[in-house]
Design goal:
CATH class of the largest domain: Alpha Beta
Organism: Pseudolabrys taiwanensis
Keywords: DNA-binding, Nodulation, Transcription, Transcription regulation
Largest sheet: 5 strands, mixed
InterPro entries: LysR-type_TF, LysR_HTH_N, LysR_subst-bd, WH-like_DNA-bd_sf, WH_DNA-bd_sf
Number of domains: 3
Strand order of the largest sheet: 4-3-5-12-6
Family: Belongs to the LysR transcriptional regulatory family.
Protein name: LysR family transcriptional regulator
Structural class: alpha/beta
Length: about 300
């Protein structure tokens, strides 16, 4: 019989992370430990449980049947310990020494991150912020595991994720200041005839940008959007203003991002044809950390900075 006194709680933390990451390097990065430390913890666990727990394969660390059997119970036990330790604890921003991990898109890094950093430096100088690029396929697991504390943007919600809507964002077109054909507004005909710069995968940005296409005008706009003439496709927004300023291309961007680019003087905004919809920017966290006082404070800061009046 295994004596629990012989099991270091930290070994179970490593076990949980390995089950979720299936990779020693990623587990080490997530826990802030060295790879040798992870390997040592795994060896101690194997000795204590008398099971290999993980088999190294080309695809990563494959858990044994024993590891799969105990994983759910270990995760629940660690949750219980976390909740017990958080009960009655407080968080003092001006004295805190803590690192928060936040996921956001490159748009978020441009629009929200500067204001968030400025606020944190003012009220919580000991707090550190680590920002990761929003990866929608991984965001749920990262939130559930505690790998990240907060995600800002848009992700698909599940029963165990909590969503807090901040504001609705609209779209604008941007062109170079001396564009020969585009004035303050882009007509539907111009939207269809001009060449476009697209950010990300074109097939992912389709009718979701529009209101329900109930009338002929909106249906025509949706059709023009799907069939637009794409000259260049780039993976992120960083290169957009420089490309637009040197070409006759059009790019559709969130309104706040368009305003920031216009302030830099490289591009100017142009109103899009009527019918473009909007999208909601939200913050997301896992219900496991709903009562975590530090995370609760950070969510409050984000809400204070970015929530629209109607969402407060």
């Amino acid at each position: 019989m295994i004596n629990i006194r012989n099991i270091d709680l930290n070994l179970l933390v490593v076990f949980e992370a390995l089950m979720q990451e299936r990779n020693v390097t990623r587990t080490a990065d997530r826990l802030g430990l060295s790879q040798p430390a992870i390997s040592l913890s795994l060896r101690r666990l194997r000795e204590s449980l008398d099971d290999p727990l993980f088999i190294r394969t080309r695809g990563g660390m494959r858990p044994t049947r024993r590891a799969e059997q105990i994983f759910s119970s270990v995760a629940q036990a660690l949750d219980s310990v976390q909740n017990i330790l958080q009960t009655g604890t407080s968080f003092s921003p001006n004295q805190a020494q803590r690192s928060f991990n936040v996921m956001m898109s490159d748009i978020g890094e441009i629009i929200y991150l500067p204001r968030l950093i400025q606020k944190l430096r003012q009220v919580a100088p000991g707090v550190r912020l680590s920002v990761r690029r929003l990866a929608r396929p991984r965001v749920h697991d990262e939130l559930a595991s505690g790998g990240i504390d907060l995600a800002i943007g848009w992700v698909e919600t599940t029963a165990d994720l909590i969503r807090d809507d901040l504001f609705d964002e609209k779209f604008v077109g941007i062109v170079r200041p001396d564009h020969p054909r585009i004035g303050k507004r882009i007509s539907l005909a111009q939207f269809a005839s001009e060449w476009h710069l697209v950010v990300g995968r074109q097939e992912l940005a389709s009718d979701s940008l529009f209101l329900a296409a109930n009338d002929k005008r909106e249906q025509a706009l949706a059709r023009a959007f799907r069939q637009r003439k794409v000259a260049v496709q780039v993976p992120h927004f960083l290169a957009v203003p420089n490309i637009i300023s040197h070409t006759d291309l059009i790019c559709v961007v969130p309104r706040q991002l368009g305003d920031i680019y216009a302030e830099l003087g490289q591009v100017r905004p142009a109103t899009l044809p009527p019918g473009f919809g909007s999208f909601t920017v939200s913050q997301f966290w896992h219900k496991r950390f709903e009562k975590d006082q530090g995370s609760l404070w950070l969510r409050g800061v984000v809400r204070e900075l970015f929530a629209s009046p109607q969402n407060r």
